[in-house]
Hints:
The protein has a domain of 92 residues. Helices cover 49% and strands 5% of the residues. The protein contains three helices and two strands; from the N terminus they run ββααα. The longest helix is centred in the C-terminal third of the chain and has 36 residues. The protein is rod-shaped, with a radius of gyration of 33 Å.
Amino acid sequence: MTHTPEEPEPTHPFLAKPVSPSGPHESSAPPPPPPPTATTPYGAVPGYPPYAPYGVVPGYPFAQAHTGANTAMGLGIASLVCALGAFVVCITIPGVLCGPFAIALAIRAQREMRVNPGRYNNPGAATTGLITGIIGTVIGIGAVALVVFFFGFVFSLGSV
Length: 160
């Protein structure tokens, strides 16, 4: 095989473009349109529509649940149930212990949701955990104080 200067230099098969079995041909289809862009105060964001639903921020196409917010909500509800059931059964101490953890987790989850807007889809769970944790803690501490006061009063009468 001789090589002339007018011919291109032969290439390896893995560098050659694939050829159709029916031979080379030109495509008559127009090129695909460019993807839509979203406009933000910082400019256009490729790949996103020009409008976005409330709470959706480009960069986080699928919002996820914040596990700390869900845990805070569960602990807050548990502290509230334990505190309200303190006068029926002796489950006050777990409720008093669950409440502060619910408050701490809810505050941390709310802070992370403010830092990453649009990434998490459950800010209501963090708010619920915070409120029920506060109420459960206050009622639980009140119930413990009332029980201590009651037993102290009863034992002080028995020693007379």
